[in-house]
Amino acid sequence: MLTIGLIISVIFVAAIIIGVVTGIQPRKNDTEDINVGEIYYYQTPPEHIAEDQNGIMYADDELLVVSRGNVSKREIEELARKYDASIVGFIEVTGDYQWKINHDCTHDELKELVYELNNSPLVDSASLNYYCLIDISGKTISEIQYGKKWKKDLKNPTDVAGSSWGVEAINAPEAWNFMNEHKAEIKPIKVGVIDNGFEEKHKDLPFTQIFYNDPYKNATRSERKKLGEHGTHVTGTFAADGTNKKGICGVYPYAKEGGLYAASCENGNRQYYENNSVNGNIISAKVCFAELILRNVKVINWSYGWG
Q1: Which residues are within 8 A (CB) of 217 and not within 5 positions of it... i.e. 6 or more apart?
Q2: pLDDT at 146
Q3: What is the pTM for the complete model shown?
């Protein structure tokens, strides 16, 4: 238990940046292919994101349905057809479905459908696909100072104003030393990040796999800068490679050996706002968590502000 406590105390800190640290031993990445079943979802077009009288955002032609155990996809498809709906999103292992209604519905009509579905023997729960604004402000990775300054500062644990004081405060270097001394019996774990988007080929971020990153990947440099590259920044804080000399070292610098996974739940239409926010919704969040959890990712960092 002491071992687990030391490791987890390091992993869960999500706001600490440090410099290149020597002595972190590389280990082989033995990431295996895992069959997680069908997972997909539909990005709601901006014109179908509405607000109710209380200002709560929702998709005006969608419903989310969770089936009861042992209910097949075919049964849910048949149920959807009765309501003139089609399945546009699906998480197989949990029985989560995203329905798109094929005719115009008022907010009250959608709520009535939700009520009916919640009384169906096939359905465990039903709801609207609610939306919210996600705060994605933050420094870009290029704005973080790194190199000799960080390494030198790490040697002065009494300097509370120093760049690496945070990791010293949680005894991160001691935890790294502990892992290195017991590397024969301690296996690095899989870690993951859910955020707006990720720079896939960043030299200091050893991604194993990234999901739903296309809108960010295809964005222009100016669009990325407007977003703040929050996902790249947070991933560096959390799990930057500790085995090279290319920049900072993450709070958990063993991600290269255990596996680093990421999922982007940014709005697929790349709708930017002056307050550095994008649209997030229930089904995209479920899908992102499913992609990571079903691959046995042990710790997931989600550092958003929700409006």
Answers
A1: 197, 200
A2: 39
A3: 0.76
